[in-house]
Amino acid sequence: MNIKAIIFLITTFSILFANNAIEKFDNNTKQYQTIISAKKQNHLIYEPYKNILNEKEKKYIRKKKVINVCINPDWVPIEFIKNGQPQGISIDILKIITKEVNLKLKYIKTSSWSQSQQYLKEKKCDILPSAIKTEKRLKYANFTTPYMSYELAIITTKNKPLVANLDSLKNKIMTRKKGSGLISKMKKMYPGIKIIETKDYADSFNLVSQNKAYYTIATLPVFTYYRNKLNLENLHVAGETKMIYKLSIAVRKDDKILLEILQKTIRQIVPNIFTIVYEKWTKKKVVVKKDYTLAIYITLFFLILLTIITFFMIRQKKLRLELTQLNKTLEKRVLEAVEKNREKDKAMLQQSRLAQMGEMINMIAHQWRQPLGAISATSSTLYLKAKLNKLDNKKVMELSEKISNFSQHLSKTIDDFRNFFKIDKEKRKTSCNDLINSALSIIEISLKNNNINIVTNLNCNKIIEVYDNEVKQVILNIIKNAEDILLEKHIKNPTIAITTKNREIMIEDNAGGIPNEIIDKIFDPYFSTKEKKDGTGLGLYMSKTIIEDHCNGKLTVHNSKNGAVFTIKFS
Q1: Is 449 contained in some domain?
Q2: Pairing of strands 428-431, 141-143
Q3: Both 443 and 321 in a single domain?
Q4: Alpha-carbon gap, residue 543 to 541, rounded angstroms
Q5: Are residues 552 and 486 in the same domain?
Q6: So what's the pLDDT on residue 198?
Q7: Are 116 and 125 in contact (CB under 8 A)?
Q8: Looking at residue 518, which CATH number applies to its domain?
């Protein structure tokens, strides 16, 4: 993309929407890739209906034209009614399915899920878009193959231990939305269990967040939606229930042709379309009020940051082109020169750092999002109180102090990242624990946003003397590699475990390990498994050089039963 175009677009939108700029910058690449992916898939998601339906089914569609639909009016984000219109994951998928076969949808208004089921039984509705197949429902409905499957998860606050199974919670207080069939099931399984029945899911999650109840049970999309909507960052998935909701389309018993049409169309959907719809309803949306006075100051700050980013982008592009050319013609000579000349190691170290620039910018965006949102909320409070003539000196001082604290946090973030890119000129005294904590302060938010668990067991405060910024770069490189492979393999419950003891740092993931045929090559220069993702092949090579040549240490790797284990040992 043209650099001038990027500068023009970011400058214009930062002035109008300064408080949203970080969110847009953070998500820009992912959104672009999702849009391109969706556009490509539009031609591949289905075969045209005329090729998959027989003549009898086509005749049925020409005659039927409209399907009567009843839904669960209060099951956010699966399906629900908002502003008088059906919305949710199942509704989006149903629209895609029916559009492919030229069927129109007519939503029949019901007051509850029970009434929707009754309407299907009475044939006032043709389908229920999202229903679980049960013996009772089979008496009046047929079901397509399940197109969504969600396990019920145990939700607690993050300060509580992980849960092996429901048996360990039978004496704890649980919350659940009133009318849920799960309530009677839990009481049958655990007589005497105490359950607080709430008016909706939001109350269930809030009571757990406020420690007024120990846990609740919900599907992952429901939990993700409400955690993001209500900003319940202290909640997490603590365990599994082994209970699974398999959601299908329920079709009235006497309409077998419609069942077969829906079944055939569902089979044409590629998995990515479900992912796109799911992320639409569960991805966190940042909504902030606009304060143009504050925006002017933030815009100036963005322009400075943009200048720095642009400079490094240009340098990175230039160095990458030079490096590509060298790889084609002088790879052997470069390898020989690296062995003979340590000064060239420093140049390659700088190239490696520049190759990480995109990831570091993303981390900066994550670090800034929360304080910028807080500054916006605080300034909005000042404006509102001033407008209502309810502003007093005490409140002004209190809110001003908050803005000052958040601004200092932003300034400290800038210093942290600026210091990170300084080349160490002398060794400093530090400890393994301090190195880990400093590195995690940069990448921890990115890991949390990708739902990757960090487990730390830090037991080494012994003083070591190293180039601490360079060692932190090594730690970040190993953690980022672990994050990439966990996301690439879609690991369930992705975890990175970090342990320190006896001047050793061990970083382990649960991604299954490094293939035996390449594990001996991963520290070789220019060897990369990320070539399609612009991998340079220098990250682990430079990491080993830093630890072993600059810090008199040792960097090794081996596979455990869970995944890869990188060990840094200082003398």
Answers
A1: yes
A2: unpaired
A3: no
A4: 5
A5: yes
A6: 92
A7: yes
A8: 3.30.565.10
What angle is formed at CA 407 by the lines to CA 403 and CA 413, rounded to 5 degrees? 150
- The DSSP-derived string for 490-519 is T-SS-EEEEEEETTEEEEEE-S----TTTT
Q: What is the mean pLDDT of each run of 10 residues along the chain (571 residues)?
A: 52 48 40 38 40 84 90 88 90 85 89 91 93 89 88 92 87 88 85 91 93 92 88 92 88 93 81 75 54 71 85 84 76 65 60 58 60 71 77 77 72 63 72 89 80 93 86 86 91 94 93 90 74 57 82 91 94 83
Question: What torsion, rounded to 10 degrees, do the Cα atoms 407, 413, 416, 419 define?
Answer: -80
Nearby residues of 115 by Cβ (< 8 Å), 6 or more positions away? 70
Q: Which amino acid is at 20?
A: N
Query: Which domain covers residue 397, as residue numbers?
Result: 3-25+289-420
Q: What is the largest CA-CA distance in the chain?
A: 84
Residue holding tokens 């830093």?
Answer: 546
Q: Reduce the DSSP state of residue 79 to 3 states and report it.
A: strand
pTM value? 0.41
Distance separating alpha carbons of residues 314 and 324, to the nearest angstrom: 15
Residue 136 within a domain: no
Task: Give me the long-range contacts of 417-426 (CB less than 8 A, separation at least 24).
Answer: 417/360, 417/363, 417/364, 417/442, 419/469, 420/360, 420/469, 420/472, 420/473, 421/353, 422/469, 423/346, 423/349, 423/350, 423/469, 424/467, 424/468, 424/469, 424/470, 426/467
266 and 187 in one domain?
Answer: no
